[in-house]
Model the fold of this input.
Amino acid sequence: ARRRRRPTARVMRDVSRDARHRARASPRDRRSKNRRDTGWVSSAMTLAMALTLALRGASCDARAASSRKLLRREPAGASRPVHREHLSSGVSKELVQRVARRDGGVAVTFANEGMYDFVVNWCEHMDEIGITNYLVGAMDESLYGRLRKIGVNAWLMGSKNIDDDEVKKDFGWGTRTFHKMGRDKIRLVHELTKTGFDVIVTDVDAVWLRDPFPFLRRYPKADALVSIDNLRNHTSVVATQANHAVDGEGLEHSACGGNKNIGIMWFRSTEGSQSFTQEWLNKLESNDKDWDQVVFNKLVEQGGCETARDGSGVAPAYGGGLMLGILPVAFFANGYTYFTERLHEMFGLKPYAVHTTFGYAGTVGKRHRLREANQWYGDKYEPTYFQGKFMSYTPRLLKDVDYAEFVKRGHPNEENTPMLERDEDVVLEHMRFVNHQLAQLYEAAVVAKHLGRALILPPFACGLDRVWFPHKGRYPGALLKLPFVCPADHVLKIEELHEFAQDYREFSFLGHPYMPRHFLTSENVRRVEIPSSAAFEATIPFHDKLRACFEKRDRKRGDESCLPEGNAVFRAAETIKLSARLGSLDALSVNLESAKDVKFLHFDTIIGLTETSQATTAMTTQIPLGDWGMAQGTNEDLGKLDYSLDNVSIFGDAPPSPSKNETHEPEESAERSSEKESEASTADDVKVSIEAGLMKMFHGDKNKVESAVRAIMEAQALEAA
Done:
């Protein structure tokens, strides 16, 4: 029997005091106290039982146990019926109040069922950086139900004037449905600020890499802050900007000029923001053909726009009715500054966000660019993406390409160079440079298919930038150095690779945030060495400056471990050496019989693997080649050039160089350069060429063309300055 402790004097005093209290209490009070005591015991027993069941469940379901915050958050809605005040956008004020920070800040995005994986990506990034004050507007019931299941604070947003069937599809940039969706966004911003909340609203194809709220709160004078499509930072143009910088971070110098991008917007609950968003919404609803972003830019400049004299970056716009600031492009990156220019890596910065603009393959291209940067978390609930067997190879670059000509067209050397012509040497060199890499890809794709493996794409190097209007080698105003590692959508039609997830993976697949670590062991890898050939000797490896892997929190500059050839596990793996070039793919299968069940198979090159090419013309439909553009041209001939594998060989003798690259006479080159400069000296001619390309891109929409031309001409003027 246990020895019962004697009560201490303090306990006796407490008991005595409690007895005196009960004596004074009424019978009703005593019954209430007993019920509370009984309720406490019952609650404790319930809690203990729940903990027991939770522990048992954790041991039974490893996936649920390893889930991140997304699954542990309280589902949207209350457990008992309450009165909710709903805004016209469908969200209840009670839900926003429960999610928002104490200072009233809330982050919002919205999407439909067709963008479910983008929503998961957006939410997972939020969870990773510790942001919980966010909401997702579901534009259809299907998405709403899926988000509720994974614990996301969502509401059924619906959409005005969009059909029930249409609202579930990928809207596509610039479509009529796309424009209707934009009106829902502005309506939501207006209502939230009018209700007393400060809101940062982003498109769902943007991702957050750092908590932006401390940065946004540094500017209490601003009614609104918005991102911009500029290609370089202007946060230290004048000395006074340093007085407002925190850890080197500040706003862009001026809110005037440039094309503001409303994919990332911060609006405070002020009279200025509410008045502005009300007029913005009124103008959009009066004309269903207007693009919300074009109207925004016109309104900002309407009545005058000023530059902050104190260097803060916050200045009057909208005729003095709106205090506006521009988010710095190095920290709130657009698709060009992050994926192509890599401005953050150039200056050693840590971005807050990236918006997947400036792409060439629609939604598919956006997804692929995020995959390449290892910023795609949309595969959280798709473990099949990592199942199966994979093949990779180390790409090679032509040795005899005139790389110096590329360098001349890149930053900072492009000063007075003329617009590119489709038949000049540097353009032909670029095409030859890329076509040789694509020939390697085609051979590798055939080999992978024969071996029953998905192919990990290589990184691609480009000698010139891809721009959708006539240019000088890179986008006007960009700090891009040439040559560079370009996104896959610069050289391939990624949007037409419908079986991509089945047959291919991004070049940085090994660095995928959800790659199971137990897959990356030397036992799961075999390397294949190919005997040298004349075609191989005519190539070189990627230059040290052509870094493919993106910098991340856990990966510093120069770390190429996302690539098979740069991964330590792959380099330490067992090697299979082929003694000679093979006559067929069946012979290859025989030589690799010992590795048929290994998860990763990496070839040190694909050049000269077989005696003759195994690729067929059918490959062009399986992997559609992209195009390069635009060179200077007329309205009928816009200067677009298609990549082609004609006369490209990676077998036998080294591929010959075009005759134009065999002889270079300085006198003729200088004379030709002078002629081109005089031809391109007239700004009107340049503008006509640009407009011609944009009219085709925007399907004749003059408003969009006008806005784009204005932004391009401003960028060119800035570059010249």
User: Anything to note?
Assistant: Confidence is low (pLDDT under 50) at residues 1-83, 654-686. The radius of gyration is 30 Å. The first strand starts at residue 105 and ends at 111. The CA atoms of residues 26 and 32 lie 10 Å apart.
